[in-house]
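Risk mitigation, structural track. In case the binding assays with alpha-L-arabinofuranose fail to produce interpretable data, a predicted complex structure has been prepared as a fallback.
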Amino acid sequence: MKNAKIILDKDFIIGKVDKRLYGSFIEHLGRAVYGGIYEPGHPEADEQGFRRDVIEMVKELGVPLVRYPGGNFVSGFNWEDSVGPKEQRPKRLDLAWFTTETNEVGLHEFADWAKEADSEVMYAINLGTRGPENARDIVEYANHPGGSKFSDMRIANGKKEPLGIKLWCLGNEMDGPWQICHKTAKEYGRTANEAAKLMKWVDPTIETVACGSSGSGMPTFGDWELEMLDECYENIDYVSLHRYYGNPTGDTPGFLARTLDMDEFIKTVAAICDSVKGKKHSNHTVNLSFDEWNVWYHSHEQDKEVWKQGKWGRALPLLEDIYNFEDALLVGSMLITLLRNADRVKIACLAQLVNVIAPIMTRNGGGCWAQTIFYPFMHASRYGRGTALNALVTSPTYACQDFDRVPYIDAMATLEEDGSVSVFCVNRDMEEDFQLEIDLRSFGDLQIREHTILHHDDVKAVNTEENPKNVYPSQGPGGTIENGRAAVTIPALSWNVIRFA
Ligand code: AHR
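Fallback model:
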């Protein structure tokens, strides 16, 4: 057994945890919408065709914000196609995913779905094939009370009250050459600035998110942020970050260390935002929206096969990664990384939510079940609220291909208003349990309320419809607490939530 230590103090505050840190993402892609949240004729479908069993799982997961309708999809999407009588909506070729978009589910239906799922919509506009004019129009449609062309159109389409969408993404991954109408940083920055300006003139209460790099591995990363922020800094509120990790070589210790890269990515983008703030002598702080993050690599080869069998289908089974136990550990560590940066990361979206690189899977006409990554997200969303505390972690380290000093123990803590403390912890050690000392002396008389773990002996273990609880949370070994010092056993390769009250 190895030893590690965490010191917590109620005054070591990183910042308030914005509930939008536990957002997710639904794109018109694959079976996320059609065959995922929406399946008319399914025994669980409600009167609008939305699967009630899926809504229940989304609620269980705890997702206060959903980014919609893309993703790469938005860069060729006309929002007007998705409103009005369903039978008059056009079918379009989606050039992002080479499928056919039927527009059966559109803005009104999705707003209703989000409400049912106890969630708010974060809406992404098209800055690929379109520009500021359409951006202005959709804000008017969604948020203006009435008495203008687009707000009256919304009312005529059956929504008297504004949809009240508060958070708007100014396009998606515009730095990526794969994007429909990819732009240079300067072109994008100018367009985003003008779009945001008009959108905020229509509704000054909204917030806007500008596209940062689509990953820290992009050759333009850094320059992109600097150049585009130079054009739009004052009219935007957040810069987006996107990052997916994979383990194609089966190097588990190296894979579990990827969050060191994620942490560096966040700190670099925050520093760039602040350097532009300084250069502009601005009083305005731009924060971060990590609006796509997850593991994504399992389905790459399968997707090539799906397209080989024919493009332009509806709801092709794309990006259907089946997540294993080590993926859940990395997702846990990514959540810890987001919490550690809660002073700057105010929004984050697990990409995505149903069927497409998702914690929730469905079978057409069949059941739905939770993938391994469902559980760390659910725990963090449930208990990682309140104030993020700076956990001072002392842990032995290991070396891997990309990093020399990876702490075996990755941990963060939150303090809720009722005085309860939750510690989230991943043990990256493949072999050994840890005896973890948690110093909580500043909190007074706390007791260990529960210790929940996620562990499986096989890192490649998965959940299926037939065996949905193969990787499933269980009660951890727990520990003792004396004079404000807890001693808890953290099993080898495990995700842990230790709750003190
Ligand atoms: O989430 C899947 C895709 O990944 C999104 O459409 C795109 O933004 C990113 O490249």
